[in-house]
Give the backbone structure.
Amino acid sequence: MTSESTQGMGTLYVVGIGPGLPHVMTQRAKDIVSTADCVIASNLYQEFLRQDGTIPSEDAVTDGGMAVHPDGTEQEIVRSSMGQQVELAREAFERVRNGEDVAHVSGGDPNVYGKSDLLFTMAEAEDANDVPIEIVPGVTAALGGAANLGAPLSNDFCTISLSDKWRGWDEIEEKLRAAAISEFVIVLYNCWRDYERAIDVLREERDDDVPIGIFNDAGRGDAGRNLDDETHTITTLGDANDHDDEVGGMGTSILVGTHETNVWENDHRQYLVTPRGGRDVEDF
């Protein structure tokens, strides 16, 4: 039921589009992005979203800046960049108040180092408590990369960002040690920042023969931006720092297994598998 305070308003959707390619988006994410009055997305994600017409092609942009879908419906496409997030949040609030549905696009999942916290923080700072906000989940890199590697997240796991933009290294190191000691499978994000330093910390708490997976641009196929295409490498914790060539940039994540994680191989390839706690076939 629509309350009086939201009548005449649109909705601000923070939409996770996973790796960004149309075939890896949820249907709900695709539906919201394709029908929103305004889509806020980076140039890279705009490129991905145009591949199947989720947003109109560049050729469909009119002189007035509006984009037109083949069925004649219009939407405005706004370029997002790291330095404009505060201004874009303010603009989104005003658009929603004016009755527009706004899709603010986030790669991966908005709640996993994405944009959802920024929008709520900005809503608080801008007295935008009247603006309806909905989070639309997406496939984060940990899930996409784990799928490529096999079944490494079948037991307890956590994600840790190595970016020190918001947290100092002392706090990051503390989290790494706690996760390693607690026997979590660990997925490291932002590995372009101090990944060797993180590996050295984990080696102090976990055996060198523990399997790990290094993956790039999970779910992007040959549209990857770090290396030639989507890649994954299985190695060990002790050898991780010898794989600089596989750590390509912001799209690289490293999955660190536990003492239970094993390398499983069939006639086709190797996989990483972390069993869910000592079970065998009779337990199913």
The chain has a mean pLDDT of 89. The radius of gyration is 21 Å.
